[in-house]
Amino acid sequence: MTVESVVEVSDLKVYFPGRRSSGQAKSLVRAVDGVSFAIAKGEILALVGESGCGKSTIAAAIMRLVAPTAGRIASGGVDLATVNGSALRRARRRFQMIFQDPFGSLDPRQTVYETVVEPLVIHGVPAEERRTRVLEALEFAQLLPPERLAQRYPHELSGGQRQRVAIAAAVVLRPDLVVADEPVSMLDVSARAGILSLMVDLRDRLGISYLFITHDLSVAWVLADRIAVVYLGRIVEIGSAAELVAAPRHPYTQALLEVTRGDGHRTLPGETPSAAAIPTGCRFHPRCPKYRLLNEPSQCREVDPVLTETATTLVGHQSACHFVEENQ
Ligand code: SF4
Q1: Closest Cα to residue 193, out of 222, 169, 171, 214?
Q2: Which residue, by CA, sits nearest to atom 3 of ligand 1?
Q3: Among residues 162, 194, 199, which one has the least CA distance to residue 180?
Q4: CA-based angle 59:62:63, to the nearest 5?
Q5: Distance from the CA of 57 to the center of ligand 1, in angstroms?
Q6: How confident is the model at residue 1 (pLDDT cuts 50, 70, 90)?
Q7: Considering only CA atoms, which residue is closest to atom 2 of ligand 1?
Q8: Cβ burial, residue 121 (10 Å; 0-12/13-18/19+)
Q9: Third-level CATH fold of 5-94+175-319
Q10: Which terminus in the chain has less CB density within 10 A, N or C?
């Protein structure tokens, strides 16, 4: 692990038992199927992909909301994939999460103060420090004036303000990493811009790193330093946000970008296959336009491609495609 990394994920797998169909053996849902990446201090890494691709399960595994089946989540000298008890509690203090729904994630019976003070109470911060820390977090989240906002209830706030309360509760412990799962997808356009700019501001002021989960490549491009594109439980392309969007190399990333830049009517070809029945070889081959263009080479059906750099991309820009050198 490099000195600056706040977390290094290696070959992470999360499998769930699937449903048994009549007369057949029980299937295995490979929701996350061998994912590796590191996040540097102060870095924003976006995980991008369609709904059901496994990106939220990766986030949940890092937060230990689901148990990893295999792999390492190395941070601060411990493997979060396997720790329990007080070591897990200490790690939870350094990793915080923001959820998609700013309406459902706050308790309607609690004031803003009660919501934001809760992590301090859980982690044993002395009572005399708590009020100052809560007001400071509200100020960080630009909920101004903090003293007045602290007394409000969720129903008295806009969607953007509620998400700012969730952010204040996430940063009040000064975490190293915030995992944000689709935090702006339920907000209107102006609130969305405000939350994205707040996240960058907090990165700059507090040195927080983010794992940002989104289905929207354009949002990832605006916010992130690097983007990892996830397809059916695997990263199929990873690189700097600027280069990956300007020169995507994987056919799936290229298709996602076409949809993002389209007129709103364009969709990706085909359905995402089930994680209980992952295609052989390259898992994208049943939907891949390049595969059809190349006359369906057997290599795509038979050999699982690994992430590889190309001669013409920046260091660290990798794609998992047998024909990556041609995908320009
Ligand atoms: Fe498409 Fe084949 Fe590349 Fe997979 S390996 S993305 S099927 S061209």
Answers
A1: 222
A2: 321
A3: 199
A4: 90
A5: 24
A6: very low
A7: 300
A8: exposed
A9: Rossmann fold (3.40.50)
A10: C
Contact 241, 225 (CB under 8 A): yes
Examine the pLDDT at 2 and tell me if it is beyond 70: no
Backbone φ, ψ for residue 171 (5° rounding): -100, -5
Ligand 1 pocket list (CB less than 6 A): 251, 282, 284-285, 288, 290-291, 300, 305, 321-323
Looking at ligand 1, which residue's alpha carbon is closest to its atom 7?
285
Residue type (1 letter), 324: V
| pLDDT on residue 259 | 86
Residue 87 has a pLDDT of 86
Domain with CATH 3.40.50.300 in the chain: 5-94+175-319
To the nearest whole percent, how much of the chain has pLDDT over 70? 95
| CA 93 to each of CA 178, 180, 208: distance values in angstroms, whole numbers, following the listed order | 11, 15, 13
pLDDT in tens, 159-206: 999 999 999 999 999 999 999 999 998 899 889 999 999 999 999 999
Q: What is the rounded distance in angstroms from the CA atom of residue 146 to the CA atom of residue 135? A: 6
Q: In what order do the strands lie in the sheet with 5-17?
A: 28-40, 5-17, 70-75, 78-79
**Single pTM value for the model:** 0.93
Nearest partner of 37 among 210, 255, 203, 218, judged by Cα: 210
Mutate to test the pocket of ligand 1, among 285, 294, 327 (most ligand atoms within 8 A of CB): 285
